[in-house]
Amino acid sequence: MSGSNNTSAGDIITYIGVPLAVLGVLPILYNTLATLTALSKIKRMLRHGKLTALTRSDIINKVIEVELPRYAVQPWDRFSSPEYWQISRQPSSIPGGSWTTFNWKTNTIGIKTQRVEYADQLRQPQVEVEFHQLVAYLLDLGAVPDAHGWRLLRSTGLWTPMGCALMTSPDGFHIALAIAPLDDSDGHLSLKVTWDPSWTTRDATTLPPYWIRLPPPPMTESEETSAGASTSEKTSQPQETVQSEEETGSKDKDKDKDVELGDTKKDGMPKQSLDSIAKQANRNARSPITCQFSGEGLQAALSQDYGPPVSVVDVNNLHMEHLRVSSVKTSGKWFASAATAYGTTSQTVLWNYKIPDEILAFARRDTVPCGVLEVLGVVDSDRTPQWATTYDDGRDFHESFVRSSQEQRIAMQAEARMDPAQRQIAAKQRTDREMMQRMNESMYCVSIHTYKHTSTHTHAGTP
């Protein structure tokens, strides 16, 4: 009785209220500790992936806000950037960040805010990339298309099952490109990439995807004979004769200068420039042509040697407007179709240009028109009836000469009304334009010469 009498209300509050208060604070302490732990793990994941993000935490409600930027990406230049052929040193381990496996040119297009409780709930925003650029990039690295996956993608579209492989490693045992979950793709195709440095089997010395190198036409017997004769003449010429010619040329240098200046004024272009144009045209006629194709047909034609391409900028671009696909002329469709048939096989899964159905139907017929056989060199022209209109080269050349003369006269009249500085700039531009025009005409004459001496040629009247 005495012990119970000594217990007061304060003691009861102390013995019972303090433990209850501690129990009430424990959830707050737990939320604080869990939030700080998750926040530390999230920051460590962001730091490992070298991601710039803004984080905020609510320790009472156990909520962490993470703001991550959204990017639009595209590959680097394959010729000038070593990052194109290398993978990232520190790819992101956050789900949705498989795109960080490669090095990209990035452009920020927005911000995505996420509210998470645990670190494993964090998702890295997907990036926007052109599908054909991604596929071409993987093809350039050495990835192999999966025929079954592409057939499934063409038939089902966005409903393609998750995990369906579109491209594999060169050995075919690993998946390089697959369908990913539609987390925040906003109605776009969601993809996941995987790559290992040992899978890269190509480099800058190989042709890019969707490019074809067309060899030059074979030399005829007459051309080989003339080339051999010219080579033998150059090698058998005595050195004394060369030296005497050089001495004679040096003596008459001053006299020749006056004559050359007079000829230059009369002709409007130095003879040396015309010779260089003719030589360049002959080199282009005997050099392989590297062509780039897209879904719209021929995009670029470059004259290069047999060596590896080093750039798509510092090359000799050929005139190709007459071979572009258009609704007016069919030559572009035929050229793109013939080049596609030459550069691809039945095992090719991905190719930019699709041969039109009417050309495929024509090529699969049991009979072939005599004109096609003559163009292909299967039969001679004297064994076939006349199937095309004779092309008058001289008339076209005369019309081109008259047209260029009129354009030159009009341009010179306009230059006469300009200031000296503007007149100099306009004259230089006109000279460059006329030089390019003469170069194209020289290339055209070389092609006509080849047509007349070989059985393989191109004709405007192909049926």
Architecture overview:
The protein contains 13 helices and eleven strands. The chain is of the alpha+beta class. β1 and β2 form a beta hairpin. The radius of gyration is 36 Å and the shape is elongated.
Helix/strand layout:
Layout: H1 2-6, H2 9-48, E1 54-58, E2 63-74, E3 105-116, H3 131-141, E4 144-145, H4 147-156, E5 165-168, E6 175-179, E7 191-193, E8 211-214, H5 221-236, H6 239-251, H7 253-267, H8 271-285, E9 289-294, E10 297-303, E11 316-317, H9 331-343, H10 357-363, H11 370-375, H12 393-416, H13 420-453
Antiparallel strand pairs: 1-2, 2-3, 4-5, 5-6, 6-7, 8-9, 9-10, 10-11
Helix pairs in contact: 8-13, 12-13
Taking the alpha carbons of the first and last residues, their distance comes to: 124 Å
Which term fits the overall shape? elongated
Give the total of beta strands.
11
Give the helices and strands as they follow along the chain: HHEEEHEHEEEEHHHHEEEHHHHH
Using only C-alpha atoms, the radius of gyration works out to 36 Å
Strand order of the largest sheet: 4-5-6-7
Q: Beta fraction of the residues?
A: 5-15%
> Spans with pLDDT under 50 lasting ≥5 residues?
237-248, 253-268, 446-463
> Could you tell me the mean pLDDT?
77
Share of helical residues: 40-55%
